[in-house]
Design goal:
- The protein is about 35% helix and about 20% strand.
- It is an alpha/beta fold.
- Helix 1 packs parallel to helix 2 and helix 6 crosses helix 11.
- It is globular, with a radius of gyration of 23 Å.
Length: about 450
């Protein structure tokens, strides 16, 4: 009798898991309480996988030997509670992918901010070096789908804390933890320590042959790192002091060392600007050195990397005003990083669905660099309360087009208009990509 696997959730990770589990001989049933995207429905039909949408049939679900839960579904979900109380094992999609990846190596990146950029840069370095690899996880294909359809000897995976919550044996050869700040606390009983523990799970199965890259300048990481029994080789990145093993920046030069050899290059050659990106770049370069990539290749890759869409993405300059799309900034921390890298007077477009934001965190930077705030959201009260006495004007707008026009109105030659909302986008847009695309479209129509 084939092992019965139920897949909860029919998005990218759910469908990827369904394809891989089917290929590996499991009896698979996929269930999603809302409706599936056309492309996923077609993939399931083509592969002959049984599924339901718009409902959950409990008898079938509770009859599973194992359940793969999509990272978007919370532990508070009634169905998840029932599965747990029956003692059925719940795993995440990265756990399933790991189970069938064969001898392939894995570089996994997690963290509250910078993980997408660090993942993409690490992948870019590996590609420039000629390694046969794939970028998976929250970017591109799900890890499971890549293993099923086009397996590679190396995977560079962006993994979230939600995915790490349900791992059992998942063990990356190289783990990167970029930083830890308060995000998604609604999923962790509003207990910051639960979220911190989730992030550190990336290292829990590592052995002495593996590497754990972390930010030694990140307070939260450093406060908790000794509470975990990390067996892998620890490699810090820092700007505060020289380290014998790891990466550091001194007098505008980056040094990367693991063992005897080291790579050095000037931070002025980095394609990515801003202090936070220097941390991301150090982490990616360290990962590359552990893969024994030649230093010339690392230097080339760091200089040629194109930044990601919706992440500090240059859009256009209109009559001397520069427009930047940082729609991917869905928390206050991300917006802090964006403002931190601004060198010119800034018109900031903020707002959307607030995840319990604490705006006091960016007050100093706003006072220093922002000359007007354009609110782009349904409810902007908190923004007015936070910045009303330090920035004038603060204007409400209800669409990307309105926001762009208002920002342009207040901007002078030599200013920057920065869309870095610090909020989720679901009040006015489908997702942060849709928000970024509408913003770019409106800029191009000016």
């Amino acid at each position: 009798m084939a092992k019965r696997m139920v897949i909860l959730g029919g998005g990218e990770s759910g469908v990827g898991a369904a394809l891989l589990a089917t290929q590996q001989g499991y009896g698979v049933f996929l269930t999603d309480e809302s409706s599936l995207k056309e492309v996923y429905r077609n993939e399931l039909h083509t592969a002959g996988i049984a599924f339901e949408e718009g409902q959950h049939t409990e008898e079938r679900i509770l009859d599973a030997d194992e359940v793969m839960k999509s990272p978007g579904i919370s532990e508070k979900n009634e169905l998840v509670k029932k599965i747990r109380s029956k003692g059925i094992d719940i795993i995440s999609e990265i756990e399933l992918a790991y189970r069938f990846k064969g001898n392939s190596r894995v570089i996994a990146v997690t963290g509250s901010n910078g993980k997408t950029t660090t993942t993409a840069l690490t992948y870019h370095i590996c590609q420039v070096a000629g390694l046969d690899c794939a970028m998976v996880g929250n970017i591109g294909y799900s890890f499971a789908k890549q293993v099923a359809i086009n397996p590679k000897p190396l995977y560079v995976a962006e993994v979230s804390s939600f995915q790490l919550d349900d791992i059992k044996s998942f063990k990356p050869d190289v783990a990167i933890l970029t930083n830890i700040t308060e995000d998604h606390l609604d999923r962790y009983e509003y207990n910051f320590e639960n979220y911190i523990r989730s992030k550190f799970r990336i290292s829990m199965n590592q052995t002495g042959d593996d590497y754990f890259i972390y930010n030694a300048d990140d307070e939260v990481t450093m406060k908790y790192i000794n509470q975990f029994d990390i067996k892998s080789n620890k490699l810090p990145v820092t700007m505060r002091n020289e380290v014998p093993n790891g990466a550091f920046i001194k007098d505008g030069d980056m040094y990367v060392r693991t063992g005897n050899d080291f790579v050095a290059m000037s931070v002025f050659d980095f394609a990515l600007k801003g202090k936070h990106n220097q941390y991301n770049t150090m982490a990616a370069c360290l990962a590359a050195v552990t893969m024994e990539i030649r230093k010339e290749r690392i230097r080339d890759a760091v200089q040629t990397f194109q930044s990601l869409e919706h992440r500090m993405e240059y859009v256009a300059t209109v009559r001397g005003v520069e427009f930047i799309n940082d729609s991917k900034a869905t928390n206050v921390n991300s917006t802090w990083y964006a403002l931190e890298s601004m060198q010119k007077p800034t018109i900031l477009i903020l707002g959307g669905v607030d995840k319990g934001n604490d705006y006091s965190f960016i007050k100093e930077l706003v006072k220093e660099r922002v000359k007007a705030i354009i609110c782009l959201g349904v409810d902007n009260r908190k923004i007015h309360e936070a910045f009303g006495n330090i920035v004038s004007p603060i204007v409400n707008t209800g669409s990307a087009k309105e926001a762009v026009h208002a920002a342009f109105h207040f901007a002078s030659k030599g200013d920057v208009v920065l869309l870095s909302p610090a909020c989720a986008s679901f009040d006015l847009f489908k997702n942060y990509e849709d928000r970024g695309n509408q913003f770019k479209h409106a800029v191009k129509e000016l």
